[in-house]
């Protein structure tokens, strides 16, 4: 019974991922998909841990409230409404046009009434309208988010595929030559900024040298599957390789500690093969830090892949944010940052729930 | 870059063991070879030497004999001559020497990161120590503040803060507080302040965690018993113990901020006229296919600097843990 209740949280999380993937494939509106996914996570984890989930959810509200105020403040107090109008309308704008622009966008109103206007809209899924192209911010975010999620997913897959075997092997051979080689290359990889790595990849794999991959703009999955894959290889590598170095170091450090625990000695004493000890006894309890950082990075990558998205002309969240910052289009920026902050907080929340699934010891302490 | 920050502060508390004794060994590993962390070795001194070189570039780039200035025109525009004996990294779009520009670029790239990290330690350290020492309401408030800052992706926060402080249109008034400065310098100063605010929350988390641990120790209790005032306990008992962890974190902080500064320059935010590594990489980006040397120079400088800092941070953490394990 208890076991089944514990699993409900994980099932909820998986259902959320499934909902997101399905809605992306079927082209369902992003906001609806996210609400459904969120509901799946909450229901699943509420069954698992009861009131704990609701406490965490309640703590989420003030955080989001303060994050939105913070970003709204930074954006609106940055330049005068006159400057925003002139920047959007162009330097030749007449004073009447400027007046009209300020009037139409309520720029002259005091900070808090503007904020309240925005919040009351945001609560029903209306994040406002862009100054520049008069399109709905909700639509823009809903268009950009799936693309950024793809990029995030690909780079995380690359990072995990590289870091887990490398980290496990380095921990197994701790302080020997193989560990030295792996750890040193990880340190080196960690020291390359991702835009430098991106340029390096463009040069080596692009038309400059080997000429195997195109450095063209983003191709949609539905348009041309092969073209999509070819286009996404370089940006995913540029982000994924640096991440894999960070993950590998974390996994190695944790795994070296785990390998000194008594249950490992017991397993070895029972004659379990080294491979089985590593992969089925030692790996699972060593995944905690990696999981936390994985979640933090998943959230960070969605908007933080800004430069890579710009270099490879991918119309994701990073590009949306970058254009919005340069163009003073602060409602777009506000909408994008809020979606990212929600994602960040929710992912952390999800990781907390996953801890219990990973380590039975935590489960028992809590219940 | 957030991964680096998080690895120090995030996640559940796992005891750090630096020199593991092999438990799963394959026969040829002896438990004695686990003490390599104590040796300084070639790379340690190479990293130190490189950083000293960079510091010299920061302080004295203008006086290095035979080095062209960053804006000194060697050849006509658009020649973009490749690397040669006279110009090690070749010439760029505007006929400037790329190697010379890389050396001059250290001043702002490194200087901003260094000053911003110190600022971050002061802001973040204060927040963290206060939260860890006074606990209860103060801790809850400050932790909420830290979490808000951390919920916004780092680069987005940096861009927003820099945009907030330094509009790219330039500063009309050429004053920073009470000093007369050039508008470009003013933009750089505000970018530095934005970066210290960016660095503060991660540093505050480390400081808070350390303070929580140390303020439960007996010697703090002893100080309290003899009636020492809080400020004295913080400065005399806690700070000397909290600082070492913050210093090794600060080395990573500098490395991260060098990259963030370069990213901002690459993005074209802040003072775009300054000579920086990120800005120079951006200049060379358009001609990457045919003349990669314009990107290579500043990239190499930045890579070696960040690598040295990361390596030293690793070593410093190891020395520290070994020292504490010995106690």
- Structural domain tally of chain A: 1
Level-1 CATH class name of chain A: Mainly Alpha
Which oligomerization state do the chains in this entry correspond to?
heterodimer
Mind telling me the C-alpha Rg of chain B?
23 Å
Number of strands of chain A: 0
Residue-averaged pLDDT of chain B: 76
Task: Briefly note the structural class of the backbone of chain B.
Answer: mainly alpha
| Helix run count of chain A | 17
Specify the CATH architecture of the domain at 108-277 and 290-326 in chain B: Orthogonal Bundle
Task: Please state the structural category of chain A.
Answer: mainly alpha
The fourth-level CATH homologous superfamily of chain A is: MetI-like
Q: Report the helical percentage of chain B.
A: 55-70%
Strand composition percent of chain B: under 5%
- Which word captures the global form of chain A? globular
SSE topology:
The complex is a heterodimer of chains A (367) and B (327).
Chain A lengths: L1 H25 L3 H20 L1 H26 L4 H9 L5 H10 L6 H13 L13 H36 L4 H14 L3 H12 L19 H34 L3 H8 L4 H9 L5 H17 L1 H6 L5 H11 L2 H29 L1 H7 L1
Chain B lengths: L1 H8 L31 H20 L37 H37 L1 H16 L2 H12 L9 E2 L2 E2 L2 H32 L3 H8 L4 H38 L9 H9 L7 H34 L1
Antiparallel strand pairs in B: 1-2
Structure notes:
The complex is a heterodimer of chains A (367) and B (327). Chain A is an all-alpha fold and 367 residues long. Chain A has a single domain (2-366), classed as Orthogonal Bundle (MetI-like fold). Chain A contains 17 helices and no strands. The longest helix of chain A is centred in the middle third of the chain and has 36 residues, at 137-172. The model of chain A has no long low-confidence stretch (mean pLDDT 80). Chain B has 327 residues and is mainly alpha-helical. Chain B has a domain at 108-277 and 290-326: Orthogonal Bundle (MetI-like fold), CATH 1.10.3720.10. Chain B has 10 helices and 2 strands. Chain B has a two-stranded antiparallel ribbon. In chain B, helix 1 (2-9) runs parallel beside helix 6 (183-214) and helix 8 (230-267) runs parallel beside helix 9 (277-285). In chain B, 45% of the residues are buried. At the A-B interface, helix 3, helix 8, helix 9, helix 10 and helix 11 of A face helix 1, helix 4, helix 5, helix 8 and helix 10 of B.
């Amino acid at each position: 019974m208890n076991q089944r209740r514990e699993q409900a949280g994980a099932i909820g999380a998986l259902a959320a991922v499934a909902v997101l993937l399905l809605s992306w494939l079927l082209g369902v509106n992003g906001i609806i998909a996210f609400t459904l996914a969120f509901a799946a996570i909450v229901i699943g984890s509420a069954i698992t841990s009861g009131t704990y989930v609701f406490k965490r959810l309640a703590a989420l509200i003030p955080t989001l409230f303060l994050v939105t105020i913070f970003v709204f403040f930074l954006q609106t107090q940055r330049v005068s409404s006159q400057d925003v109008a002139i920047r959007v309308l162009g330097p030749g704008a007449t004073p009447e046009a400027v007046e009209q622009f300020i009037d139409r966008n309520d720029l002259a109103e005091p900070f808090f009434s503007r904020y309240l206007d925005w919040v009351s809209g945001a609560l029903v899924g209306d994040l406002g309208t862009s100054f520049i192209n008069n399109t709905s911010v909700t639509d823009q975010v809903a268009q950009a988010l799936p693309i950024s999620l793809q990029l995030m997913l690909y780079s995380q897959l690359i990072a995990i595929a590289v870091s887990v075997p490398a980290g496990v092997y380095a921990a197994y051979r701790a302080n020997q030559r193989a560990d030295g080689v792996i750890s040193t290359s990880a340190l080196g990889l960690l020291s390359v900024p991702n835009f430098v790595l991106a340029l390096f990849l463009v040069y080596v794999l692009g038309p400059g040298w080997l000429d195997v991959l195109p450095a063209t703009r983003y191709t949609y999955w539905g348009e041309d599957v092969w073209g999509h894959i070819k286009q996404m290889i370089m940006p995913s590598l540029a982000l994924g390789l640096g991440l894999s170095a960070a993950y590998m170091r974390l996994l190695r450090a944790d795994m070296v500690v785990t390998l000194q625990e008594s249950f490992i000695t017991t397993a070895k004493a029972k004659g379990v093969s080294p491979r089985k000890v590593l992969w089925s006894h030692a790996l699972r309890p060593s995944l905690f830090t990696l999981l936390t950082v994985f979640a933090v990075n998943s959230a960070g990558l969605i908007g933080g892949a800004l430069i890579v998205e710009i270099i490879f002309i991918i119309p994701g969240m990073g590009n949306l944010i970058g254009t919005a910052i340069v163009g003073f289009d602060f409602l777009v920026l506000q909408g994008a940052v809020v979606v990212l902050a929600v994602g960040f907080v929710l992912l952390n929340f999800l990781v907390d729930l996953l801890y219990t699934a990973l380590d039975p010891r935590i489960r028992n302490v809590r219940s | 870059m957030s991964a680096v920050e998080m690895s120090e502060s995030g996640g559940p508390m796992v005891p750090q063991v630096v020199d593991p004794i092999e438990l799963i060994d394959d026969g040829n590993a002896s438990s004695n070879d686990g003490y390599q962390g104590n040796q300084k070795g070639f790379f340690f001194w190479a990293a130190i030497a490189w950083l000293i070189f960079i510091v010299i570039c920061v302080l004295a780039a203008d006086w290095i004999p035979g080095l062209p200035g960053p804006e000194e025109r060697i050849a006509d525009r658009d020649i973009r001559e490749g690397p040669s004996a006279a110009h090690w990294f070749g010439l760029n779009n505007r006929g400037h020497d790329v190697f010379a520009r890389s050396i001059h670029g250290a001043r702002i790239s490194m200087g901003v990161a260094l000053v911003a990290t110190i600022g971050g330690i002061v802001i973040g350290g204060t927040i963290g120590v206060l939260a860890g020492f006074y606990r209860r309401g103060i801790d809850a408030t400050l932790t909420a503040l830290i979490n808000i800052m951390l919920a916004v992706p780092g680069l987005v926060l940096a861009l927003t803060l820099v945009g907030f402080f330094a509009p790219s249109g330039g500063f009309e008034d050429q004053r920073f507080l009470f000093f007369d400065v050039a508008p470009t310098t003013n933009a750089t100063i505000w970018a530095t302040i934005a970066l210290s605010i960016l660095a503060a929350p991660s540093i505050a988390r480390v400081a808070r965690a350390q303070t929580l641990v140390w303020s439960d120790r007996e010697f703090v209790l002893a100080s309290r018993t003899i009636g020492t005032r809080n400020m004295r306990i913080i400065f005399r008992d806690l700070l000397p113990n909290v600082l070492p962890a913050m210093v090794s974190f600060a080395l990573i902080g500098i490395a991260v901020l060098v990259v963030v500064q370069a990213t901002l320059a690459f993005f074209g935010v802040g003072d775009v006229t300054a000579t920086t590594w990120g800005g120079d990489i951006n200049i060379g980006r358009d001609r990457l296919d045919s003349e990669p040397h314009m990107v290579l120079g500043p990239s190499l400088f930045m890579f070696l600097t960040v690598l040295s800092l990361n390596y030293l941070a690793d070593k410093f953490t190891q020395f520290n843990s070994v020292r504490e394990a010995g106690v």
